[in-house]
Write a structure and sequence with these properties.
2 copies of one chain form a homodimer.
Chain A lengths: L6 H4 L39 H7 L5 E5 L4 E3 L7 E7 L1 E7 L5 E8 L3 E2 L12 E4 L3 E7 H10 L1 H27 L2 H18 L6 E3 L4 H8 L3 H13 L3 E4 L2 E4 L2 H9 L3
Antiparallel strand pairs in A: 1-8, 2-7, 3-6, 3-8, 4-5, 4-7, 9-11, 10-11
Chain B binds a DNA duplex (30 and 30 nucleotides) through helix 7.
DNA sequence: CGACTAGTTGAGGCCAGTCAATGTTGGTGG
DNA sequence: CCACCAACATTGACTGGCCTCAACTAGTCG
């Protein structure tokens, strides 16, 4: 069970293997073009030939810096572009008819947001930076035009959208069938995998969300999340220090996820 | 709140209006080509020019008849094609790691299934016919090739995938934030809208799912679904006769969905 | 320092799950 | 046509997981 696009899934279509990336991203040296972007094999340019790669940079109309709490787009805004997260992270929020909201997703560097806007010409949710974040603005018309010229790129767009559908299937499973303990265990292991994929420690990481945001994403109340963190700590599964999470016993966490009862 | 691709969303991109379809589908007279298909404006060929429409039929490699209970594809099967439902209906099922399952979606004529397979080259769920059903088999490579030639078709593919993402956002909201009564009210109104879109009565329709399947989709147990049907009937909201549902008081049903508490 | 936000913990209540008994429906074969 | 069976559905009694409400602590920032 995994709530993000898994490396396995990403590599199903032939292309550079994920483990080929450097273990730690050297942020200071990151250049400002897509073709040189250390995140690119998480992105749409995965597997492109040299000729196509030359033109990939032109897909990015601009880059935007967001401060923590800034909104990138809102539900109902006219859809124009997809956004690739270069650094930092965002949450996306769905709104209910009665004005309440739910965290629909938690997105890290290399991930692309805004895809639910394509179909209706308006974004379907709000994207908010959880920390200082930099995004690449990719006008969707350019992506479509590029896809018509480059078969592999076209497939990458389809894959991107399809993998998002798969991710949401897993969230629906989580919300529809799992008890609270299991939901949180899935969440923690999922984050660990995604930090690992990005070259960070998968044993210790810092949450960028509040307890309330985690709860909203998992269909739980903040008190329940807090209680579960305490329980997991008592049981020696994790060490929790505010937002710093250290996974102590992955085996048992995984058992929590996989054992039915 | 709507769990399917809404007419409004479908029409956001300029194209033939949904209400232009005949009120009742004449099944006996349906011809066997896409360009003549009464369902086509629900489909990928929406808004294509005459020149493109000529070649749309070639996207369908074959048609398959399924009997009630037949499986169209299973989770893990190699992905090759999308399937458009010509007549009948299907459910899709996600599997948990521990072998349990959840109904991930309920799909009617004109809808396209299998999209979650594009990204990973394997279908992510199982599709099962809920009644005798006919589907069009559309090899995805053909769709991609056609999209490279026809801008509008390419956009329709993107829209299809994106609208599915939007639908799943709404299901996540339902599972994550709503109480049981509200979930069922959303479900009943959603079905009514979709039957209306297809030219059937939106006040009275026959469920194709068991109570257990409804419950699975809504994150509830079958007993809870049954109790709620009885309660809705006591309160005069619907008339329930086995699987035949008659909506008696849409206003109150809608209020159930929209009022927060 | 006080005001504020985020997080923890406890007591009690309620919604939906579990278990179990019974009723209903539709298809099959005598 | 009816008897029979299996699958589906209804209803009740009880249980329990999570929510609600509330009090308290820790850390942050003007």
């Amino acid at each position: 069970m995994n709530l993000a696009v898994t490396p396995a899934a990403r590599n199903a279509y032939p292309g550079p293997a994920v483990h080929a990336r450097p273990l730690v991203l050297d942020i200071s040296n990151r250049r400002t073009t897509c073709s040189a972007c250390g995140l690119r094999d998480l992105c749409l340019s995965d597997g492109l030939d040299a000729e196509a790669l030359i033109h990939v940079d032109e897909l990015v109309a601009s880059r935007t810096r967001l401060h923590k709490g800034d909104t990138l787009f809102r539900a109902g805004d006219r859809f124009t572009s997809l956004y690739a997260i270069r650094s930092g992270s965002c949450k996306t929020i769905s709104l209910t008819v009665d004005g309440h909201s739910q965290v629909a997703g938690y997105h890290m560097s290399g991930e692309i947001i805004g895809v639910e806007g394509i179909g209706s010409d308006h974004y379907g949710c709000q994207a908010v930076a959880l920390e200082d974040t930099e995004v690449c603005v990719m006008p969707f018309e350019r992506l479509e035009a590029f896809g018509r010229k480059h078969l592999r790129f076209q497939h990458n767009v389809h894959r991107l959208l399809s993998l998002e559908i798969g991710r949401q299937h897993r969230v629906m499973l989580l919300l529809g069938t799992m008890l609270a303990e299991r939901r949180l265990a899935v969440f923690l292991l999922d984050l660990a995998d995604r930090y690992r994929d990005r070259g960070y420690s998968s044993c210790e990481y810092v949450l960028r969300m509040t307890r309330e945001e985690i709860g909203s994403y998992l269909g739980l109340k903040l008190e329940t999340v807090s209680r579960l963190f305490s329980k997991f700590q008592r049981d020696g599964l994790v060490q929790v220090q505010g937002r710093t999470i250290k996974l102590l016993d992955r085996i048992s966490l995984r058992r929590l996820v996989e054992n039915s009862d």
